[in-house]
Amino acid sequence: MRVALADDAALFREGVARLLTDAGFEVVAKAGDAAELLARVHADPPDVVVVDIRMPPGFTTEGLDAAREIRETHPEIGVLVLSAHVEPHYALQLLDTNARGAGYLLKDRVTDLAELSDAVRRVAAGGLVIDPGVVATLVGRQRVDDPLKSLSEREREVLAVMAEGRSNQAICERLFLSPKTVEAYVRSVFTKLGLRQGPDDNRRVLAVLAYLRR
């Protein structure tokens, strides 16, 4: 699988490139800013782009903006955005009603090779990846008349894992539950929150995120 990587910090960029190479990916491009990344991607589209949110020259949302452009011009390319901080609003900006092949991961996670590799493969396959830290922030927000209070502790755990973009099977493995038990919890969560069950994992994640962002 071919990956393009962009980060203005050379040491971090080279470190991630080494991790990806060790995991069996082919790093075909390494860029220090968003403009260089876009030029490399347009010239030779990879399977996945891994990009930092804050890039030169302004160090605001250049990487996120590049990710959106890549999604628009090359929808077949998976995009994984990295951030140094938990910023739910940026994660939600990356996803829309037709989102697929997109992810938002904290930079701290990339030291876990298994988690980084899994995220890259999932966005390459068209899945959605949301960092657990972002999900925890959204789920833990204090709201007036919070409907999440109607969920049991276990249902909240299922909701949180679901919002990360995980399948029912992954929820089983994470929470040590049987498939039938997970299905029952998922149905209960959607019923209590008044959400429609989507036809696929991505639709399910988008429904949950749309609810949590309110």
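Above is the first protein from milestone M3; the second protein from the same milestone is given next.
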Amino acid sequence: MEAQSFRILPAALAAAALSTLAACATPAVTGPVEVTRFVEPAASAQLGQGTIFVETAPGAQADSLALTPYKQAVARELARLGYREAPRADAAQVAQVRVERFVSGPDGQRRGPVSVGVGGSTGSYGSGVGLGLNINLGGGPRETIATRIGVMIRDKQSGTTYWEGRAQFSVSENSQYAEPAASAKAVAEALFRDFPGRNGETIEVKVPE
């Protein structure tokens, strides 16, 4: 029995080594973040200042822990822009966050969700405008993880939408941005770059490897 176990062990180690080498041979690939913003022209004086509360968008799982890194990343960007985060009761504006993550196959078809709370409908700006995920990551057929985030900044009292932004990107499963915290940071930074942006314009933001 001992002799047999010694014969099996090297084969198992060799298989593990080959698996590791195969994983290392496939480079991690990250697509650019595609960003679209919609701006209410009359709201320019209200954007980037005052108090704001970051919350889950209506229709999402309000207590979803998976949304936490994305809401935190959005809050950091809003603070950088000049907003002061406050409790909802004291905030003049609210930022509603919705997130969707899913696995996409080599053919571009959705394979299944990645566990993240999914937000509700879009706002009044650009309703029905979809962002494509046809990004060629290179390196041959592979499954990718797609992340979509949407943020709406609204006046809390009236519900008027001042600004809406959407961002999305796809990464290979071995990319550092497949992890929620890194993904959240990347899409939030891209979404709020050159805030508020041009109304209806779509840009691509390269993500550092």
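Note on the second protein: The chain is about 25% helix and 30% strand.
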